[in-house]
Specification:
The structure is a single chain. 60% of the residues lie in helices and 0% in strands. It is mainly α. It has one domain (14-67). The longest helix is centred in the last third of the chain and has 26 residues, at 42-67.
């Protein structure tokens, strides 16, 4: 197994590591609809899953940036 090391410069503004407001609103809308028992289309489900994944990655980046 080989490894690749990628170095990136971490911005000092940690707010950059969150979803933009419009994208966050869309994610919250999809999640709220799902919580109310409404069915999401397959496309909406994939969209929600992708946005949740992205939000988690951004959260991890924010935590790592705070540690450096």
């Amino acid at each position: 197994m080989s490894h690749v090391l990628v170095e990136i410069e971490m911005p000092s503004d940690l707010d950059q590591f969150k979803l933009p407001p419009g994208v966050d609103e869309r994610l919250q809308d999809l999640l709220d609809r799902q919580d109310r028992g409404e069915s999401l289309t397959p496309g909406e489900r994939r969209e929600a899953e992708g946005l949740v994944d992205l939000a988690e990655v951004l959260s991890l980046l924010r935590v790592r940036a705070q540690r450096t």
